[in-house]
Write a structure and sequence with these properties.
By secondary structure, the protein is of the alpha/beta class. The chain is 45% helix and 13% strand. The chain has one domain: 2-Layer Sandwich (Nucleotidyltransferase, domain 5). The chain is built from ten helices and five strands, in the order E-E-E-H-H-H-E-H-E-H-H-H-H-H-H. The protein has a five-stranded mixed beta sheet, with helices on both faces. Helix 5 packs across helix 10, helix 7 runs antiparallel to helix 8 and helix 7 packs across helix 9. The longest helix is centred in the C-terminal third of the chain and has 19 residues.
C-alpha cells in the first residue's frame, strides 16, 4: 500500500432515492475503513428513507420500497446514525465523486435527522477527481463516462471489472435481478471497489502525493479547476 496513513481512512458510498442532495434521501450506506496497517473493516446498513423510492432509482441499486419501508422495513437514519458515526470515528474520508455527491448528501441527512457529524480536521480524497486530473484526454464518447465501472476497468483491470460489473445485472423488468449476496449491487461493494481504484491510482501515478493531507489538497485543487471550467 503506497498511501501513508496516520489514522484510518473511511471510503463510503450511498444508495439513495435520487441525485438531489437536498431533497432525496439515503436508502443504503456502505463504509469501508482502511487501517494504517492495511487491513479493512466494513459496515453496511439500509435505512427507511421516509419517502418512496422511484422506479428509476430502484433500477440502479435494486432496492424497492418493500425492502426498507413499512412495519417490517428498516430503521430510520435517526435510529442508527450514531452507530455509523461511531464507526467512522475521527477517520479521514474517501469516495468516488464523494465531494460532489456522497458527502453533501450524508451531511444533509445528518442535519435533517439531528445527528452531529463534524468535518473539523478531516481530509477528503476523491478517486473521481484523480481520474479527472490525471486523465485529461479521456474521451467519454469512445472510452465511456468517468463512472466507477470504467474506473475499475481502467485502473484495476478487466478481471476485476468483470466481477464488479455483475452488480449491474438486471432482470427483464429492469428492476434488478435477484442476485446472491456475493454479487448483488451494494453501497459497501462500491466503497470497497473505490478504495481499490484509489490505491491503484497511487501505483500508476508516481507524482501523486502519498500522504493523506497533501493528496486531499491536490483533490481540492482539481475540484476548484472543474468549478472554474464550468462557470
Amino acid at each position: 500500500m503506497q498511501l501513508q496513513l496516520s489514522r484510518p481512512l473511511v471510503c463510503f458510498d450511498l444508495e439513495s432515492t435520487g441525485l438531489d442532495v437536498l431533497n432525496d434521501r439515503i436508502v443504503e450506506i456502505g463504509f469501508v475503513k482502511l487501517h494504517p496497517d492495511g487491513t479493512r473493516e466494513q459496515i453496511q446498513r439500509r435505512v427507511d428513507p421516509g419517502i418512496d423510492i422511484p422506479e428509476s432509482a430502484t433500477r440502479i441499486h435494486g432496492i424497492r420500497n418493500d425492502d426498507v419501508r413499512g412495519l417490517f422495513g428498516e430503521p430510520s437514519l435517526a435510529r442508527i446514525g450514531a452507530d455509523l458515526i461511531a464507526f467512522v470515528g475521527d477517520a479521514d474520508l474517501a469516495g468516488f465523486n464523494v465531494v460532489g455527491y456522497d458527502l453533501p448528501m450524508w451531511r444533509a441527512e445528518c442535519e435533517r435527522h439531528g445527528l452531529e457529524f463534524s468535518m473539523e480536521g478531516r481530509h477528503v480524497l476523491d478517486a473521481r477527481l484523480v481520474f479527472l486530473g490525471k486523465e485529461p484526454s479521456w474521451d467519454r464518447f469512445i472510452q465511456g463516462p468517468r463512472n466507477l465501472n470504467n474506473a475499475v476497468l481502467h485502473y484495476c483491470g478487466r478481471d476485476q471489472a468483470a466481477v464488479f460489473a455483475q452488480r449491474d445485472a438486471a432482470d427483464d423488468s429492469g428492476a434488478g435481478a435477484d442476485l446472491d449476496k456475493a454479487n448483488r449491487h451494494s453501497a459497501v461493494k462500491d466503497a470497497d471497489a473505490t478504495l481499490d481504484v484509489l490505491l491503484a491510482q497511487l501505483q500508476r501515478y508516481s507524482d501523486l502525493p502519498r500522504d493523506v493531507p497533501a493528496l486531499a489538497e491536490w483533490c481540492a485543487a482539481i475540484a476548484s479547476e472543474q468549478q472554474r471550467s464550468m462557470a
